[in-house]
Write a structure and sequence with these properties.
Largest sheet: none
Organism: Brevibacillus nitrificans
Strand content: under 5%
Shape: rod-shaped
InterPro entries: DUF3886
Helix content: over 70%
Number of helices: 5
Protein name: DUF3886 domain-containing protein
Order of helices and strands: HHHHH
């Protein structure tokens, strides 16, 4: 009987372990309230929109720079480009 009495104190620690496992089993939605979850989702949408806007601005800047380079080409560069295309008078 002495052995049975020694095993009883171990059970409360096992119950505590199962209680912590149950707490860890909660998902994020259950842990956060709806307001905080909504704020996180809005923040995610804002970050996506900002990254898309930056990508569009970068593409527009690249296009303008290319246009500016084309506009500022010298006669020699234009002639060389024309001859590379195979449309030169002597090709």
């Amino acid at each position: 009987m002495a052995k049975k009495q020694q095993r009883k104190p171990q059970r409360p620690s096992q119950e505590a372990a199962t209680a912590t496992e149950a707490k860890n089993g909660l998902n994020l939605k259950e842990m956060l309230n709806a307001d905080a979850l909504g704020k996180l989702k809005q923040l995610e949408k804002d970050m996506k929109a900002e990254s898309e806007r930056q990508a569009q601005e970068a593409a527009e800047k690249k296009r303008r720079e290319q246009e500016e380079r084309e506009k500022n080409k010298s006669f020699g560069e234009l002639l060389e480009e024309y001859e590379k295309k195979g449309k030169g008078k002597y090709s």
